[in-house]
Amino acid sequence: MLIVKAPIINGLGKTEGCKKAPDKILETLKEIYSNENGKIIEGEKIKINDVNIDRDNLEESYANLSKKAKEVFSANDSAVFLGGDHSITFPIVNEFAKKFNRPGVIIFDAHADCMHDFKPATHEDLLRALISSGFPVANIILVGLRSVYADEKEFLQKHKINTFSMKELFDNLRKSCDLIMENARKFENVYVSIDIDVIDPAFAPGTGYAEPAGLTSREFLYLIQRLKRLNNLKAFDIVEINPEKDVNGMTVKLGAKILGELI
User: Fold this and answer.
1) I need a surface site. Which of 1, 168, 203, 231 has the fewest CB within 10 A?
2) Which CATH superfamily is domain 2-262 in?
3) How do residues 205-246 score in pLDDT, each as one tens digit?
């Protein structure tokens, strides 16, 4: 398993602490002996790569991330990118789409991230940026939405984005998971992006936009463990964990727990 540290932030001044997340998560991962499938993590040969980041040159940092993602997708069966905020997903998925046939993306997020049209893409408009760049709208699945602006709702409906709201998930989590997996099987290769705010802030308080009434950590692990059974999963990212806003390290520990389940 390759882990790529990508502590890039472009959150309009709201995600500064997220740059500390990769190191904090990897440090905490050392405390986890095995994941829930019984796979030993302690002593596991985990390869870690870094992205060359220039804090004073955001465009160059994204260019370096794109270059790294291209290298990763050319040489590895699977990888996890640790952000940073959700803006990192845009360049990574663009490279993913260039490399793999019939690409699909599953985005776990409390928000739709399609309100604006910034350049480069921020953590608030990565979905709009993906669609504008030509990523096939039929190959996008949004999971966990529970705070959507009117303009975003109109955008999602206009482009017929496949969404699973938090309300739908709660009505029947198992059935929703079955449907997500059924849709994901239509893609030849799948990328999964995990914005930690899909999880309720009672379990993940360390994030910039904490939205109440989200998934429990147990419910999210159920979903991710089910998705791991898919044969077409290629890569993941974990984003929006902000250690500066965390409480007793809860969110960082959850990030490490999720990472352990992906290994």
Assistant:
1) 231
2) Ureohydrolase domain (3.40.800.10)
3) 999 989 999 999 999 999 999 999 999 999 999 999 999 999
